[in-house]
Design goal:
Elements: H1 2-46, E1 57-58, H2 64-67, E2 69-70, H3 74-80, H4 85-103, H5 105-115, H6 120-131, H7 138-149, H8 155-164, H9 175-203, H10 207-215, H11 220-245, H12 252-255, H13 264-267, H14 270-280, H15 284-312
Antiparallel strand pairs: 1-2
Helix pairs in contact: 3-15, 4-9, 5-9, 6-9, 9-11, 11-15, 14-15
Amino acid sequence: MAEIQASRQLTGEYVTVNRRRSYFARNHPFYLMLIPAVLYFLIFRYIPLAGSIIAFKDYNIFRGIIASDWVGLQWFHQLFTFPKFLKLLQNTLLIGFYQIVFSFPAPIILAILMNELRMMKLKRIIQTIVYLPHFLSWTIVAGLVYMLLSVQTGLVNTAYVSLTGNEPIEFLQNANYVRTIIVSSGMWKEVGWGTIIFLAALAGISPSLYEAATIDGAGRWKQFLHITLPGLLPAITVLLLLKLGHVMDLGFEQIYPFLNPLTSENADVFDTYTYRAGVVGGQYSFTTAVGLFKSVVGFVLLLVSNKASKLTTGEGLF
């Protein structure tokens, strides 16, 4: 009996191995296509994680990471006792919050509106127009904003002065406007590109659901509430969770062009400070600690929001 069971086990393992080989033989082109993506994440995402040890050392570029002196949590203590730490944290979280509240829903709304268009030619034209800003660099976007809001030659101020007769508004030199400018310019640049995912999600909703709802007498609003919105919910949940995980990563290139001594009070964030302290000031260990702190905060926010999403909607990343 023992020999029979052993024979059956060996046979089962042999069949399993053959099935795996057969599956790989049929699908090996797809695995080959994955190699560049795997190498990219391995080389540029996972291997650099080892450099996080710099945050616990007094890093010296001439001595190297291993030979540099170990200082433990010294840089984190310096970060948390830094006089501007709370202000940097406040600015980062506020701008990130504004992006979630205003920028995140924008591509969803745009995708729904574009999905309602029945003239395909007009739809393609609008898609092209709203996608194009994504391919502009942040430097060009900042230049366009300066051209619009400049006190001397800006289109907005020129129209404002001619219509009201008042003095021009110094949008770019006023700390009260800078967060609005940053969030608005980012929304204009990326809203069209973000609609691609939501248009794909809308395309995946079966037309038969709308046909059945029409037969049952449901109007456009009812169809949106009971078909369109539930169909978009998985994509919305995943992207919102990813956005929350990156709420501390605002992007240096987006904010720095609008940063000046008059606006830094409300616009200076961890990314811009890291540039000044790390790239310009050479404080590599300290800025690595700042980056590690941002990553930990983002990871905790991701875990909490994912758990909350699973409890409320049943959808989540993991």
